[in-house]
């Protein structure tokens, strides 16, 4: 955050726009009202005043943006308004979609409604019994929404007391419906303008001193839509030929937020003219202490006083809990749809869905969803810390005992063995020293030790010490295993398994279809909504047409629990190398069926590795306590270079050495990693056909039934853009599913809205239960093929 600012040194924003002095507001507003959005090239003699008025009048430019000194194009006389749109977008200015002349805004996600909220509006003012309210919710609302908004908890806590409308509405406000947020990639997004007075003040005009006709003109400008430039798309190549206005629609579950003492601060400086202020600095994350410091600093600054405005802002409660897919950067995407605008052979235009998918719920079906611990699990979790501390103390006690046994045993062994050594090895004092004397010294020491062990009766004092050490070693290992077991139990209970929980587990296709239906109803020139057939999807994602080989390179060359996915195209060039993937994540990159085939290959390689690994063994060294050595598959001990036996301080260290040897063998002998090529890459498409030819038509039919709509098969144009029709439908058209939307249907859809979550087809049945007609058990839809 800057200190007290120096006087303004930047040029006047009006001079940046070409004016020598601020234009008269009334003249600017009048010019804007006169002209409106132009659709022809700007005249050569058009001055900056007229050009600015034209752009403001067309809703292309906001007054606040002018004040911030943003440029609006070039002086090129051939700079058409369409070209100017690109210039504006590049400069970061809000532009109208396509600059087609009419300000056609993207509809906000506001036409969904909650059936639970509607039930709340219908209960009597005096209140309602919990059982009666429960019955109303069962017959008039989605049970998924009821559970998501924790209404059942409210009813359980009420007992037999009446639930008042205010009480229910307060509970629902604290537990809002999961209305998703919408992000559209490839299209400008609407800008939410500030209130009229603030908007005018940012343009150095006094809202209270405007002439009536000027105020009317400016209010008309304020009401016009404005847009931020389009965000780039990612998968535009995965569509049928032809069509236009490709978009990627993301429906996101909002990240939970709460006010945590952080503030958004705006510092407004006085304008040199003495009228109004202009925004100098914004900081989105300031503590309460810093807000007060800034207020005191700027109020006493030269050329002040400066206006310090602040607002406490909600911040994400736990951003780490957000779900992120492998396809898009945005978090918490419940479902996405990729669309184009297309035409039927009759010329009727419509919204065509190239793909509908939910990465979140596809992964949830495979990995499960995170659940709150049961009361029993929570109680057990509370007991574990004390049990772990007790087990650790037991380990420490056995370690102390073992140290005493070993010291006594080693001292007695050394004293007892040396007298039995042959004269040529009498200088040896320890077994370790004998390893430097060669195999003969080793044999002599072992023979002397055996004689020492057998002397003194049965069992000898030396053997008694060794037996005590062995017993303590076993007790210690049992205690260590108990600590490991308790810690593993604690990890399982304390760390949630699966992916974050989310609503729309079964109804995400409905959610995506409804949003596309609402969008289509908002566009007067679109008369149908459609989507591909399953065969189209199967052909699109047939990897054999794009990829020659897929390989899963295991971690460290031997660990198949994670690895690197590598893809080569038909020319043998590497087009994908994605590190750190677990086998269950392969679906996100290559689709379900190829991923299943590759996982089978991974399992085969893992089984072969386990078998090869089982041929090696780790044995306890009989000569040196707490030392271990390795037997290879032939049963031979593993020696270092020079004939010295390889010894390890723990079994884990020995097993790590075996893994290293197996990795080296795989690299040296060029063993193949699990891979798919040729016929293995061909996708059967059964899951896609079930989803696109059974589930989606039934779901859309159910959504449209109240409005009199039906779903039918039709041909759509797929002639590439710019191509000349040859009159061959087999090459220029393809079969698809469509629902025709009459103007009356569209008007009714917009007027009545669509339920966020629908009532099951049979009363009391939830999604996925037997008898629910809208549920089809369709396999997940494969995602886009490997990306470059």
Terminal-residue CA separation: 41 Å
**How many distinct helices?**
26
The biggest sheet, with number of strands, parallel, antiparallel or mixed sense and barrel status, is: 7 strands, mixed
How helical, in percent, are the residues? 40-55%
Got a strand count?
A: 20
- Structural class by sheet pairing and helices: alpha+beta
Chain-averaged pLDDT: 74
What is the 3D shape? extended
Strand arrangement, major sheet: 2-5-9-10-11-19-18
Model regions low in confidence, pLDDT < 50 over at least 5 residues: 1-23, 27-50, 53-110, 761-788
**Strand percentage:** 15-25%
Nearest-angstrom radius of gyration?
Answer: 37 Å
Which terms summarize this structure?
alpha+beta, 4-stranded antiparallel β-sheet, extended, disordered N terminus
SSE topology:
Layout: H1 13-16, H2 25-35, H3 48-57, H4 63-67, H5 81-90, E1 112-113, H6 115-122, H7 130-140, H8 143-148, H9 151-158, H10 165-174, E2 181-185, E3 189-190, H11 196-201, H12 212-223, E4 227-228, E5 244-252, E6 257-270, E7 277-287, H13 288-299, E8 307-316, E9 333-343, E10 349-357, H14 359-367, H15 375-417, H16 431-434, H17 439-454, H18 461-494, H19 508-522, E11 528-532, H20 534-540, E12 547-555, E13 559-569, E14 574-581, H21 587-590, H22 592-614, E15 617-620, E16 628-631, H23 651-668, E17 675-677, H24 686-704, E18 712-717, H25 729-732, E19 733-740, H26 743-752, E20 754-755
Parallel strand pairs: 1-20, 10-11
Antiparallel strand pairs: 2-5, 3-4, 5-9, 6-7, 6-8, 9-10, 11-19, 12-13, 12-17, 13-14, 15-16, 18-19
Helix pairs in contact: 2-3, 2-12, 7-9, 15-18, 19-24, 19-26, 20-24
């Amino acid at each position: 955050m800057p200190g007290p600012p120096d006087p303004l040194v930047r040029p006047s924003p009006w001079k940046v726009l070409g004016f020598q002095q601020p234009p008269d507001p009334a003249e600017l507003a009048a010019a804007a009202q006169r002209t409106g959005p132009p659709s022809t090239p700007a005249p050569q003699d058009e001055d900056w005043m007229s050009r600015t008025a034209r752009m403001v009048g067309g809703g292309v430019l906001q007054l606040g943006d002018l004040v911030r000194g943003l440029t609006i194009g070039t002086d090129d006389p051939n700079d058409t308004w369409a070209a100017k749109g690109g210039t504006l977008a590049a400069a970061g200015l809000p532009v109208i979609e396509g600059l087609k002349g009419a300000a056609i805004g993207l509809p906000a996600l506001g036409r969904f409604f909650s059936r639970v909220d509607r039930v709340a509006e219908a209960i009597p003012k005096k209140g309602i019994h919990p059982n009666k309210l429960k019955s109303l919710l069962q017959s008039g609302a989605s049970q998924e929404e009821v559970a998501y908004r924790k209404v059942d908890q409210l009813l359980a806590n009420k007992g037999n007391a009446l639930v008042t409308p205010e009480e229910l509405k307060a509970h629902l406000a604290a537990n809002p419906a999961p209305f998703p947020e919408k992000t559209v990639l490839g299209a400008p997004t609407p800008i939410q303008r500030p209130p009229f007075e603030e908007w005018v003040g940012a343009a150095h005009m006094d809202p209270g001193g405007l002439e009536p006709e000027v105020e009317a003109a400016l209010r008309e400008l304020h009401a016009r839509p404005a847009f931020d430039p389009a965000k780039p798309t990612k998968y535009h190549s995965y569509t049928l030929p032809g069509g236009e206005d490709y978009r990627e629609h993301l429906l996101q579950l909002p990240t939970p937020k709460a006010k945590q003492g952080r503030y958004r601060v705006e510092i407004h400086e006085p304008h040199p003219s003495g009228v109004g202020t202009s925004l100098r600095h914004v900081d989105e994350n300031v503590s309460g202490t810093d807000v007060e410091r800034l207020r005191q600093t700027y109020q006493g600054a030269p050329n002040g006083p400066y206006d310090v405005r602040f607002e406490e802002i909600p911040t994400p409660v736990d951003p780490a809990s957000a779900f992120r897919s492998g396809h898009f950067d945005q978090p918490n995407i419940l479902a996405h749809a990729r669309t184009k605008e297309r035409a039927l052979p009759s010329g009727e235009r419509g919204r065509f869905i190239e793909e509908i998918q939910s990465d979140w719920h596809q992964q949830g079906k495979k990995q499960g969803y995170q659940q709150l611990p049961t009361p029993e699990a929570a109680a057990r979790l509370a007991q574990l810390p004390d049990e772990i501390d007790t087990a650790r103390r037991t380990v420490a006690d056995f370690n102390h005992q073992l140290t005493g046994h070993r010291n006594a045993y080693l001292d007695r062994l050394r004293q007892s063995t040396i007298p039995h050594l042959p004269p040529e090895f009498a200088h040896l004092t320890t077994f370790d020293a004998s390893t430097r004397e060669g195999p003969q010294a080793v044999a002599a020491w072992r023979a002397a030790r055996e004689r020492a062990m057998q002397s003194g009766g049965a069992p000898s004092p030396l053997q008694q010490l060794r037996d005590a050490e062995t017993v303590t070693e076993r007790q210690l290992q049992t205690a260590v295993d108990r600590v490991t077991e308790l810690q593993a139990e604690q990890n399982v209970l304390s760390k949630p398994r699966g992916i974050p929980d989310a609503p729309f587990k079964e109804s995400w296709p409905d959610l995506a279809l409804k949003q596309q239906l609402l969008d289509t109803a908002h566009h007067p020139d679109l008369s149908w909504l459609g989507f591909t057939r399953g065969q189209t999807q199967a052909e699109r994602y047939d990897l054999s047409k794009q990829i020659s080989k897929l390989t899963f390179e295991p971690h460290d060359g031997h660990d198949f629990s994670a690895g690197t996915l590598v893809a080569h195209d038909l020319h043998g060039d590497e087009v994908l190398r994605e590190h750190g993937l677990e086998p269950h994540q392969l679906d996100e990159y290559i689709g379900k069926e190829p991923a299943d085939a590759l996982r089978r290959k991974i399992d085969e390689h893992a089984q072969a590795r386990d078998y090869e690994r089982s041929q090696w063994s780790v044995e306890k060294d009989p000569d040196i306590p707490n030392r271990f050595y390795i037997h290879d598959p032939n049963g031979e001990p593993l020696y270092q270079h020079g004939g010295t036996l390889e010894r390890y301080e723990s079994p884990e260290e020995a097993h790590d050495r075996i893994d290293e040897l197996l990795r080296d063998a795989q690299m040296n002998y060029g063993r193949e990693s699990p891979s798919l090529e040729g016929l293995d890459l061909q996708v059967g498409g059964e899951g896609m056909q079930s989803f696109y030819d059974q589930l989606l038509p039934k779901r859309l039919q159910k959504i449209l039934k109240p409005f009199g709509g039906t779903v039918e098969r039709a041909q759509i144009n797929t002639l590439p853009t710019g191509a000349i029709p040859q009159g061959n439908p087999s090459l220029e058209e393809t079969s698809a599913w469509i629902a025709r939307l009459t103007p009356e249907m569209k008007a009714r859809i917009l007027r009545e809205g669509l339920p966020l979550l629908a009532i099951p087809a049979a009363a009391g049945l939830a999604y996925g239960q037997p008898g629910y007609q809208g549920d089809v058990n369709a396999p997940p839809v494969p995602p886009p093929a490997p990306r470059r």
